[in-house]
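In this notation, each integer encodes one residue's backbone shape. One such record reads:

___
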Amino acid sequence: MGIDINGLNFLRYAKKNKTFGKTISIGRQDLAVSQSAIKSFFGSGLSYKQDKYIDNLLLDFFGASSIDSVDNSDYEQASIIHDMNLPLSDAMHCCYDTVIDGGSLEHIYNLPQALKNCSLLCRPGGQIIHILPAINHCGHGFWQFSPELFFSLYSIENGYIDTEIFLCDIFDRKKWFKVIPPKNGQRVEVYSCSPVYVLVRTVLSGAEFLHENIQQSDYRSLWSKGDKKGSIDFEDPVPKTIKSKIKNSPLVYKLLLPIYVFYMQNFKLRLSGQNPGLIPIKVGSLLTER
């Protein structure tokens, strides 16, 4: 669990929309950002070299009035010891203006309960922030996350507003990709050779929220049509007729395979604005003061 340069920039973006107020993190969040980057961002002569965690930075620059952390163990001196696999006590409900999951939920087996706990911690009008592994983090935790999960969960119908989701290559600090909500039964499928984070921000609109009957949007669309013979149209970069001809001609297959591999590696297997579900955005433009 730790906040790197992309994570810190996402927190800066969230702060533009809402000051943090009373804040809780799921697990204590390491400060994995260089001192030079911190000084360039905040113009401060203060040193955070001795700070293992991000708590003081949140208090100094993000409008956090207090910082709590919840963890299953006290090995990092979390202020609240609780297993997020289990329901929260009523005393912990609706206590925080900002809930930060900076890479914790992927380590929690009972994910539906952990997600529900994040919302239970949040006050009406408060924000929930996730910075989680999306692609190519196999073995890091139990889970890797799709934007579809958060679009389906953090919907207006379920009691959330202002949900925004970005994807970022962990090696690219200058560009993110805003994910367009899936619609008309089409999936937003994303490929990448590099590790990718999903960055999520949502606002709990009221005291009530729903976490039941969460279904993938393309299946909802298919079921609503009542067409038992219908099927979801998955994008294929090569038309079927061309594919069959290539397979039936070993020489053509041998000649075209390197071209196909090059195409996949340079256009399909990386985050790209060519994906109709993604909008490339310069991080600096998101952080420019309004």
User: Anything to note?
Assistant: The chain has a mean pLDDT of 89.
